[in-house]
Specification:
This protein has five helices and 18 strands. The protein is α/β, with parallel strands linked by helices. It folds into two domains: about 35 residues, no CATH class; about 200 residues. It has a twelve-stranded mixed β-sheet, with no helix packed on it. The termini are far apart.
Amino acid sequence: MLQEVQPVIMSLLPLKEAVRTSIVSRSWRTLWRFHCNLCFDGPNDPDSDTDDEFAGQDSTKMKRAKFIETVNSVIQQHSGIGVNKFSIRCGLPKEDSHHLDRWISFATSLKAKIIHFDLIIIDWPLEEVHHFPLEALDAQGGSFVQSLFLAAVSIPHSGIRGLTILRRLVLESVQIFGDFPGLLAKCSALEDLEIIDCSGVTNLSIPHKLDKLRHLLIDSSTTDIEVVELHAADLAHFEYKGRVIPIVLHGCSKLEKATIMFVDTKALAHTFTAVPSILPVRILHVQAIISKYAQLQKLPTIPEGMFMNLRHMTLIVEMQMTIMKFFN
């Protein structure tokens, strides 16, 4: 009975605490090697707590070297059985790319269901970010990853057959090359999609249906997305931040909540007309910026019955560092 309970206890502990339990008894010494969630948080930026810039950089390099050594030691000793999640969060210079390749190979060879690589940007220019081989996620005899979070990498995705069981995809500060809409079209099980400050995509027009997509977040305030168009019959929550662009959500009759934040100073008049798909929502959050008070007088008249299903609306208008809030 105890042998059956021990692995369960280990799975509920953070990896660091699970390793520490190896001193409890000899029978517990190797249990951590079967831990299902391998999550590693390393150093990010040079230390800011010291007045000596070079001492801070040296300290960070030492911490990063220790972090790399720890990760390599853990994956070398791990049993390779039952890995559910593999997560790396660390600033990683380009000269350490071979370690990253090893970690990706480990996660994909064990078919981890959740893969999280947040490589906080420490190298400039951004052209120096690491390449993440998406093709490795479906090159092991079929698709296996269900949740994928990538930050500060590039994803040239040649040779992708399809991430057919991927349910959640989050891309933050990612350089995207190639046919990104075509890649999304191959993710037939996608339920949650977040695209935050990514480059390389100007036309986010997806001709194929994403029938299971329920949450879509697009933050393009610092990028150049010019159009958003997709078919998502089950979409329930839509969030957008960026310039006023054409946004067409076909067949989104189940949309319940929408959050719109336009960064243009003359966009308030377009707020309720640029995204016609938000009309049937029950919860609406809108934030806009105006350059002068007179713009409030030019708002279009909303036709009667336009928001018949609306139950709650939050409208935030920013003008010259002044924030006015209206609640309905």
